[in-house]
Amino acid sequence: MRHLLASAALALVFTASAHAAPTPGAHALDDVRILSADDMEGRAVGTLGGAKARAYILKRFGQIGLRPKGAPFERPFTFKPKTFGKDVTGVNLVARIEGTSSSGKVLVVSAHYDHLGVRKGQVYNGADDNASGIAGLLAVAEAFKAKPPRHTVLIVAFDAEESGLKGAKAFVADPPVPLANIGLNVNFDMLSKNAKNQLYVSGAGPQPYLKPVLDGVARTAPVKLLLGHDTDAQGKENNWTQQSDQGPFAVAGVPWVYFGVEDHPEYHQPTDDFATVPQDFFKHAVATVVTATRALDDDLDSIAKSAGR
Question: Which of 70, 198, 68, 52 has its CA nearest to residue 113?
Answer without folding.
Answer: 52
